[in-house]
Design a protein that fits this description.
Layout (H helix, E strand, L loop, with lengths): L4 H8 L5 H13 L1 H12 L4 H6 L8 H34 L14 H35 L16 H10 L4 H5 L5 H13 L7 E2 L6 E11 L2 E10 L5 E7 L5 E8 L2 E8 L2 E7 L6 H9 L5 E3 L14
Helix pairs in contact: 1-3, 2-3, 3-7, 5-6
Protein name: Anti-sigma factor
Keywords: Membrane, Transmembrane, Transmembrane helix
Amino acid sequence: MKIDDASLLAYVDGELSTDECAQVEKAIRESDEIALRVSMLRASQLSYMEAFDQQSLPPVPESLSRSVDELIRQHLSGASAQRAADVADSSVDGAAGQYPGDNVHRLKPRARSLPRLTWPKLAVAFVAGAFCCGLALYLVPQMTGGRGGFITASNDSRMAPWIKAAAGYQQLYSRDTIAQLQPDLRVTASTVADIRNIDNLAVQIPDLRSQGLTFKRVQRLRFHDKPLVQIVYLPEQGKPVALCVLQEVKADAAPSTASVGGMAVVAWRRGQLGYALIGEPGAVDLDALGKRLFNGQVSATISDNDNDAGDNAHRT
């Protein structure tokens, strides 16, 4: 089975067989990139049908129904008169010996034929438009909450797309999977060097043991062809916590909190880098931790300046 976007979308929509689902789930476990794509596809699912099923739709006004019936009646009456006139014209032409033959089709004036083709469609469109207008007038006050602004499902509207994608990816992590990881300092140092030399990101791995978080691994990911660094920690209880970093050439911004896809997120910018601290709500005080990281109150375990992995053993 070829694992492409079409098969991943079918997997998210529940349209694959049991064997095909097993193949996709295996690919998710083995590929961080595929796991991220599945997470983004899941995040894009919207329950339109459920939203409309919960709405009580307004009835079509009786006066509107009567008006449409009258329009249709007038059209049918005019069409009958036109057919009678055509028959009369044909009879006159035949009597005068001017019948052109069976293989010649009479051209009718556009102005006379257009109402026959468009009136029924216009009547239907008129009803549909009136119905949609009534639906909009009914739904908009509820969506705006009477304050003129739309209410979103969560307060993640100010979060950048890469943060939403990273939060969706973080949802795939379980505590048991991360707990089994034993970080290799040499591999970690090599990864940090690649982040510096290849990705051109001056990233450090914060030492968060004093905050009850144990470093587990650092990954080089990509979002829209931009390097995305993910540093994963395991708290004393609850699901893993991730610190994600991506280059953002914007002014520094203080930490702000949001809920993205059920995950708690604290985001900030410093030194043209965007940061997102992502974790399960309530397990760790991410707001306080984000402020400490923003203010530089946490030391680094392995930084972009560390070239000798062996020298880092005593620092962790």
